[in-house]
Amino acid sequence: MKSPFEMTPEAMTSFGYKIVDEVVAHYASVNQKKPVSKASRTEMDAVFLQEAPEESMPAEDVLQFVMKNVIPNSNISTHPKSFSFVPSPSNFISTMADTLATGFNIFSGGWMLAPAAAELEIVTMNWLLKIFDFPVKQGGGIFTSGGSMANLTALATARRIKCDTNFSDAIIYLSDQAHSSNIKAIRILGFQKEQIRIIPTDNEFKISINKLKNEIAKDKLQGKKPFCIIATAGTTNTGSVDPLDAIAQICEQENLWFHIDAAYGGAAILSEKGKIALKGIEKADSLTVDPHKWFFQPYEIGCLLVKDKSWLSYTFSEKPEYLKDIEGNESEINFYDYGIQLTRRFRALKFYMSIKTFGLKAFRKAISYNIDLAEQTENYLRNSKKWEVISSANLAIINFRFHPLKYQFDEKQLDELNQKISAKMMESKEALLVTTILQNQIVIRMCLINPNTTFEHVKETLEQCEVFGDLFSKKYL
Ligand SMILES: *Cc1c(COP(=O)(O)O)cnc(C)c1O
């Protein structure tokens, strides 16, 4: 039988080039598009819902249908006016690298199945270890699907090393600004709610060291076993960095595991200002970074770094009989021994190719630009009589609210006003700009990590918000 999936080289070329043309056209025209798309389940069902077809149809027709209906019904995370959540600016080299990795369908689980893929993961991991001032020889790490999986992998490792199988009294500490993926991970690992301490943050949204110390002391008095502190280096809400040196000291004194979730902020280490903000990051036992955020990689790639790579193999290796022929020697790392997945896509390739192509200098330049742009935005807002800055520019994130000085709006009115401005902006689809809540206030949040975002893009958006704000303000007068 001939494989039913076989295509002629001509057909593959023609189909493949069409897709490349679409992606290139998207890169070239993204500024002319609107970043927001919105569709209800009913609308989407009307377009897509059907039984799996038994019969074939031309690939070009399927592609055309996808280009018409799928792509436009997705927000554009690479858009310069995509300000919300954490945008993913991406880059074309990595996009093509992903295509290459998929095209050759390279298995990135064991050394023997793809020595070069494992080697590239070792090499790029060494680059990251060096960037974060982790020990390159003893340290190690693994690429994951994202920050959530990196945090889960880290906490599974922390528990294995610090508690082994007896963790019923183990207590874990994190701030009220820590990312929800940490709580998810803690729950998945089977910790009870009573084993989690959410520590309040100060007025800069950093974990309160005194409250943290008090909780640890209280737990010890009650015979509990503090075992891990999760610090955040670049909180998702405000870009704040917990006091890393002070937490490192506590971990040292109390013999606790020090995990830093730098999924958002870690990449900032490549800039001068970021390096200062992230002082102490090298003291972590385990560190999550997320290349599909501020390292400009396309989805999915997260990363976990650890001080000692044997911690990972101690936590995750199993030796099943069907893998015994590919075990290899010690230096030839089987990444299935370092984490949860056996079969893994070749994530290191895009990271490798983009850094080799552009050079770290390009990354440093882009990240420094992003940090400066957020500071420039803060200046603009502080000099305006219509805006109030709620959280200063931190690692390219800024939070603010529409609060015209000439009116005496109360808190409830301000919340309503800002919610409506964001809703109106989303409705216009001109900018992806949603709110968050800080100290019980509804605020507008901008995350400015796209190197294609100019101050003009920011200003246009703020001016449009001012028009909406002035309009809605009239209602309260
Ligand atoms: C985004 C983020 C995560 C989760 O990462 P994913 O790649 O979305 O899984 C975890 N922690 C922080 C601080 C984040 O900003």
Automatic annotation (TrEMBL):
The modification N6-(pyridoxal phosphate)lysine is found at K293. Keywords: Decarboxylase, Lyase, Pyridoxal phosphate. SUPFAM superfamilies: PLP-dependent transferases. GO terms for biological process: amino acid metabolic process; carboxylic acid metabolic process. Pfam families: Pyridoxal_deC (PF00282). One of its GO terms (molecular function) is carboxy-lyase activity. Its cofactor is pyridoxal 5'-phosphate. Gene3D superfamilies: 3.90.1150.170, Aspartate Aminotransferase, domain 1 (3.90.1150.10), Type I PLP-dependent aspartate aminotransferase-like (Major domain) (3.40.640.10). Belongs to the group II decarboxylase family. This is Decarboxylase. It comes from Polaribacter gangjinensis.
